[in-house]
Amino acid sequence: MIYLDLFFGFLKVGCFAFGGAYGAIPLIRDVVMSYGWLSEDMLTYMIAVSESTPGPIMVNLATYIGSSQGGFLGAVIATLAVVLPSFLIILLVTALLKTALKNKYVQAVLRGLKPCVIGIVLATGIYMVLTNCLGAFSAIKVNVQSVIVTAILALAMLVYKHIANKKLSPILLIVISAVAGAVVYGI
Fold first, then answer.
1. Shortest CA distance to 45 belongs to which of 122, 124, 128?
2. Could you report the per-residue pLDDT of 96-115, keeping only the tens digit for each?
3. Residue 85 to residues 17, 67, 92, 152: CA-CA distances in angstroms?
4. How far is it, in rounded angstroms, from Cα 123 to Cα 119?
5. Between the CA atoms of 141, 26, 20 and 175, what dihedral angle is there, to the nearest 10 degrees?
6. Cβ atoms < 10 Å from Cβ of 133
7. Residue 95 and residue 29: Cα distance in Å, rounded?
8. Rounded alpha-carbon distances, angstroms, from residue 174 to 11, 12, 41, 67, 153
9. Stated pTM of the model
């Protein structure tokens, strides 16, 4: 039954998605691909759309996928499933926060998770750049338009950092990406 699949699939994502949205993308990809809910290309597009719309990527993706697979009820179930673990953990943490954060074992676990999350985010970013610019690893085919847009974004970030001496706003990056995409892919 699709509703149970959506619930347990996104509950899994919600339970094991450490490091925020970017850390969750590989897990979301695994769940979505294992159930066959979206193609690789469609998932990449939905990640871009979810990034550029208000709200957390994980919730936006869950809502979209739930809606596409099970209508309004599917969207509600997938969204609730993906946020339920975080909601319960936050309730528990707020109840135990004062004593738990002082515990050296809790601090050790949190320090141990940090490099893992950094690695997951980095690997996801590299994977997305390579698959969008070079295609599937089994049949490498350079996508010139994706390479150009990626180069424009990297150049914009470097030039802005050099001129303004600070990082480029994610909002401005999204706008630059949209304009570059419209120009390169020729609306």
1. 128
2. 777 777 888 888 988 898 89
3. 10, 21, 11, 38
4. 6
5. 20
6. 19
7. 33
8. 29, 29, 19, 25, 9
9. 0.58
